[in-house]
């Protein structure tokens, strides 16, 4: 059975930093989707309905955008959002490690996974690169719930063998055994992917990072995620712990952890040598502005990363971040770049939340926009029940202006529906028009 989804459609078809015509808006548009969730056609609604007269149509009174892609979020910090900490290392110790230890309880972890996945879908996110729990039962529960609810995730066991309470640490042999088991389980599910997840250089010995490099080489298609250059004290401590490394990035480079399937969160306090090496290796960097503001970490330079050809995607970094969804995070992306006199337009903001994420995660053949042949992952924004915002949008001069304003003002309660591969989630039970 073919399904049709219709509404005001907006997506980017190329990189808008280099292509002025990358944004495509189709007012009163539609796309047709087959049973596998693959897009068959994208056009004005009347053309699509004429081409597929027997299709079942779901018509939305609102904007339909590609599903948002979150490049950095922590599952075991779901309930640690907006906890107090003066800066990164203090916050980790006082607020985050105790919250993460609660995931040892498998019943709690299962219900936390339900909350986490529901909240992502409710916020308009359809794909997420997630730091899993240190506890294998909890990370397995996250994969299971994501598979049941149809969310695309890339995740893995958070690995640490020093610098945290004992309950959160693994020995290197334990880490190897648990990682191999989970990798083999996850490989069976098409929408799930495994990411080796050493927390950051300070929480891993050289032996733990050597293991991550070995596992990355042993299995095809694994991702690697970790943190870098977030905070001055963290950077100084890392330099002291790895005196042989030329800089923070070089710590990971020495263990073979860079490449086109690696995502490093933050990279605020960086230098040209590190940016150059990121570009050469195709290593992606995840920009998490709300987290950077919250912890007072600093301001990320998108311009410098783009200059060196570094793939950049956006992440919420829950629980240091304060937005659960990338859709809401885009307003913080805009402000962080405004502070540096880079004024992003609607196409660039939308790109950073969607196609840029797909490209950085090597998934642009499947997701990121509504090109025919891709999977129908989308979010529907409906402002009908927000008279103030609806009135504001009435003062926009054209659809592109309206999109820009929405990308700055939209909140999770404006998300009417989310879909992954054409499977619709309508969290508040609203029917389509
Ligand atoms: Zn993080």
UniProtKB/TrEMBL annotation:
A GO BP term here is: guanine catabolic process
EC number(s) on file: 3.5.4.3
**Pathway membership of this protein?**
Purine metabolism; guanine degradation; xanthine from guanine: step 1/1
Does the UniProt entry include the keyword Hydrolase? Answer: yes
Q: Where is the Amidohydrolase-related domain?
A: 63-398
Lineage: superkingdom: Bacteria
Identify the cofactor(s): Zn(2+)
Cofactor annotation remark: Binds 1 zinc ion per subunit.
Which InterPro entries does its entry note? Amidohydro-rel, Guanine_deaminase, Metal-dep_hydrolase_composite, Metal_Hydrolase, Metallo-dep_hydrolases
The UniProt keyword set, sorted, is:
Hydrolase, Metal-binding, Zinc
Describe the function of this protein: Catalyzes the hydrolytic deamination of guanine, producing xanthine and ammonia.
Q: What is this protein called?
A: Guanine deaminase
């Amino acid at each position: 059975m073919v399904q049709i989804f219709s509404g005001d459609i907006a997506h980017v078809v190329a990189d808008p930093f280099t292509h002025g015509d990358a944004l495509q808006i189709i007012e009163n548009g539609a796309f047709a989707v087959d049973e596998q969730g693959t897009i068959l056609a994208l056009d004005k609604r009347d053309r699509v309905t004429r081409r597929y007269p027997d299709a079942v149509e779901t018509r939305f009174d609102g904007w339909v955008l590609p599903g948002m892609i979150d490049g950095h979020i922590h599952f075991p910090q779901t309930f640690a959002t907006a906890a107090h900490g003066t800066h990164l290392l203090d916050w980790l110790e006082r607020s985050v490690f105790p919250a993460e230890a609660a995931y040892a309880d498998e019943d709690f972890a299962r219900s936390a996974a339900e909350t986490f996945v529901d909240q992502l879908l409710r916020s308009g996110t359809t794909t997420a690169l997630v730091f899993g729990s240190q506890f294998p039962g909890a990370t397995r529960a996250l994969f299971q719930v994501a598979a049941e609810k149809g969310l695309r995730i890339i995740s893995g066991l958070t690995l640490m063998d020093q610098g945290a309470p004992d309950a959160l640490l693994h020995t290197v042999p334990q880490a190897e055994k648990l990682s191999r088991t989970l990798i083999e389980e996850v490989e069976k599910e098409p929408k799930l992917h495994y990411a080796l997840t050493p927390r950051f250089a300070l929480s891993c010995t050289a032996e733990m990072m050597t293991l991550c490099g070995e596992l990355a080489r042993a299995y095809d298609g694994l991702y690697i995620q970790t943190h870098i250059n977030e905070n001055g004290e963290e950077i100084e401590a890392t330099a002291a712990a790895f005196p042989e490394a030329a800089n923070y990035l070089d710590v990971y480079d020495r263990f073979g952890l860079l490449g086109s399937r690696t995502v490093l969160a933050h990279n605020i306090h960086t230098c040209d040598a590190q940016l150059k090496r990121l570009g050469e290796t195709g290593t992606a960097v995840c920009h998490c502005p709300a987290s950077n503001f919250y912890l007072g970490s600093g301001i990320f330079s998108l311009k410098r990363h783009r200059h060196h050809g570094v793939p950049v995607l956006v992440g919420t970094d829950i629980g240091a971040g304060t937005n659960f969804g990338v859709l809401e995070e885009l307003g913080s992306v805009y402000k962080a770049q405004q502070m540096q006199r880079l004024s992003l337009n609607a196409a660039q903001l939308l790109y950073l939340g969607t196609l840029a994420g797909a490209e950085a995660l090597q998934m642009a053949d499947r997701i990121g926009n509504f090109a025919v042949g891709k999977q129908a992952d989308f979010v529907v924004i409906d402002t009908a029940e927000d008279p103030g915002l609806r009135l504001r949008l009435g003062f926009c001069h054209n659809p592109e202006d309206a999109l820009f304003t929405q990308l700055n003002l939209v909140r999770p309660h404006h998300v009417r529906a989310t879909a992954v591969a054409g499977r619709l989630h309508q969290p508040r039970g609203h029917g389509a028009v």
